What does this fold into?
Amino acid sequence: MTGVPRWARIAVYAIPVAVLPSSLWRLPAAFSDGMGVGERAYIVFLSVLSELVAFTAFGLVATWGERFPRWVPGLRGRRVPPPAAVIPAALGAGILTVLWTACFVAQLVRPHRNRRGDPAQQDRSSAPFTLATEP
It folds into this structure.
């Protein structure tokens, strides 16, 4: 990480920390009553996956983000072409922007319903928490 500006290193370390509350907020839902094993596993998997993806930001400031590691057959030691990182990142950012914008609008527009289909008593102030905990 030599030659990397201090602000960039701080930003990279902040990314997994910023994702952590969302991952932790989901976990109590995984262990609430009335959920099947598959639903519980999905919620835990989603939390773990979110953190793992957040840790990939370290590739922006680490040497393994510039050159392929020696253990990668056929690519070892070669430079990582910028499009190999930029294209997946741009596609992921675009998809997530559309997805979360649609979820946010849907959450604000439609009434929230509980598992039985009855309208739940919920005010708009809980929308951010609901969005953070629902996949």
The mean pLDDT is 79.
